[in-house]
Design brief:
Layout: H1 2-20, E1 23-30, E2 35-43, E3 46-55, E4 60-65, E5 72-78, E6 82-88, E7 92-98, E8 107-109, H2 112-143, H3 149-172, H4 177-185, H5 199-209, H6 228-237, H7 244-258, H8 262-277, H9 285-295, H10 306-320, E9 332-334, E10 340-342, E11 350-356, H11 361-377, E12 382-388, H12 393-402, E13 409-412, H13 420-423, E14 431-436, E15 441-444, H14 448-459
Parallel strand pairs: 1-7, 11-12, 12-13
Antiparallel strand pairs: 1-4, 2-3, 2-5, 5-6, 7-8, 9-10, 11-14, 14-15
């Protein structure tokens, strides 16, 4: 009997626990029937579908599951690209509306967050109607070459009404998530500069220093809104001087600000790393290297599988030796006469380090251009150290002769024993580095036209 009671109690506890967990979002949309709908959410600058369900002939449908949905702004996407938004923090609630007007016909049960949200949306919708009417009046006045001052003033009044409404919500509904979104969207109010301060610089420094004042960087629900990504992108790519040292400094500052929340930490680290790994601007790989070596470790990058983590760190180690300002790794290879040529012993003010393959289509186009450029700059202290990545001697020698490249320092690794391919991250050809007399890398990942422009700036003359 005791065992039976114990089992019964266990089953009741399990049932109660199940009832408390999971999510169940119930909807009815009048005018919708016998179709499918999607539940999606914002994440960064994109939207992702979370679930797809069937709609019955009464317009009813339910998104439910055993898991807890991460908080944020979601969308119910209907056929015809129509949708309405909702806030997910509570995990069980119901919403009823009509296809004729999602906002004004919306009724919410069991969700304080969405009741507040839709009060705001209804207010905004009424103001949007007024704005459209005034904009039409404004357009007609302009076409008639008449004054629009009164209309302009009314539009400004409406803008102030909307801001006042938001401010009152922030004050009166501090627990509403939409108020956190309002605060995060709010721009920094910059005071007048103190006497003696340069106006422009003061405003910039004040704006940047207080940029995140209104954003709760410990609340990862903001990741699932259209707001946070734009704020992060603006801070890193527009408010920060785009040189690696400056970016790295701000990256470290931001990472420490969000370290208390795993999801925010993940997003910020991934965004900055990925942005500068893919950057088309020369030298920005220094940011990728900094992020990868400092944050892609087993104890920090919890979202990355160990094998992938190793690849990221290995690539960062390779690129760390090829950063702008670093001394280029030495290369010792034989030329066509069988003599060793040593990169670090080349006597020249500038060395064009050119990796190429005689079978590469791009190399066949780039090499004649580089030959033409070389003929114009060879008397300006410029030499070319050309490394063939192919191992067939005949192809190598014939290409050099056919393109009249004998004045270059031509070397090859015919036995495929030299590690230069991995050291210089040669995954494709052609690849061009420009070194100075100290053999420091001063430019890289250039095409021939960019190399010419760079040399003109360095040599301060036309050729």
């Amino acid at each position: 009997m005791r065992k039976v009671l114990a089992l019964l109690l266990l089953s009741l506890v399990s049932a109660w626990a199940f009832a408390q967990n999971g999510h169940k979002l119930s909807f009815q949309v009048k005018g919708l029937a016998d179709t499918t709908v999607n539940l999606a959410h914002y994440y960064g600058d994109k939207q992702y579908i979370t679930d797809t369900v069937l709609v019955d002939h009464h317009g009813k449908f339910v998104f439910e599951g055993d898991d807890t949905l991460p908080g944020g702004i979601y969308m119910v996407i209907l056929p015809g690209k129509k949708y309405f938004e909702l806030i997910v923090t509570e995990q069980k609630f119901s919403m009823t509306t009509d296809t004729t007007d999602f906002v004004n016909n919306m009724k919410v049960e069991g969700s304080y967050q969405n009741k507040v949200f839709y009060e705001y949306l209804r207010f905004i919708k009424s103001k949007e109607k007024d704005v459209r009417s005034l904009q039409e009046e404004q357009k007609a006045l302009k076409e008639a070459d008449k004054s629009t001052k009164k209309v302009d003033a009314r539009l400004e009044d409406i803008s102030k009404e909307v801001q006042d409404y938001k401010n009152n919500m922030i004050k009166n509904e501090p627990d509403a998530f939409i108020c956190k979104v309002f605060l995060a969207s709010k721009d920094v109010e910059v005071p007048d500069p103190p006497k003696g301060e340069t106006d422009t610089l003061y405003k910039y420094h004040y704006y940047k220093k207080h940029y995140f004042d209104n954003i709760d960087l410990t609340d990862d629900r903001l990741l699932r809104t259209p707001v946070f990504h734009n704020k992060l992108e603006t801070y890193i790519t527009k408010l920060t001087i785009q040189i690696p040292d400056s970016i790295n400094k701000e990256a470290d500052y931001l990472v420490e600000r969000v370290r208390g929340n795993k999801e925010m930490f993940k997003y910020v680290v991934h965004y900055i790393t990925n942005t500068y790994e893919r950057s088309k601007y020369m030298g920005m790989d220094a940011v990728f290297v900094h992020m990868a070596l400092n944050y892609y470790t087993k104890d920090q990058a919890f979202w990355v599988q160990e094998e992938q983590l190793m690849r990221i760190r290995e690539r960062a180690q390779v690129l760390s030796r090829l950063l702008i300002g670093k001394v280029a790794p030495n290369i010792v290879l034989k030329d066509m006469d069988g003599n060793f040529q040593i990169l670090h012993q080349v006597d020249a003010d500038y060395i064009v380090l050119f990796f190429w393959d005689p079978d590469c289509g791009h190399c066949k186009k780039a090499t004649p251009k580089l030959k033409d450029l070389y003929d114009r700059v060879k008397n300006h202290g410029v030499k070319i150290f050309a490394v063939c990545t192919e191992t067939e001697e005949t192809k190598w020698v014939n290409f050099i002769k056919d393109h009249h490249l004998e004045e270059w320092i031509n070397v090859a690794d015919l036995d495929a024993q030299n590690p230069f391919r991995s050291i210089y991250d040669i995954t494709a050809t052609p690849k061009i580095f420009l070194l100075n007399r100290k053999k420091e890398i001063i430019a890289k990942q250039l095409d021939v036209e960019q190399l010419e422009d760079f040399l003109k700036k360095e040599l301060k003359e036309e050729f």
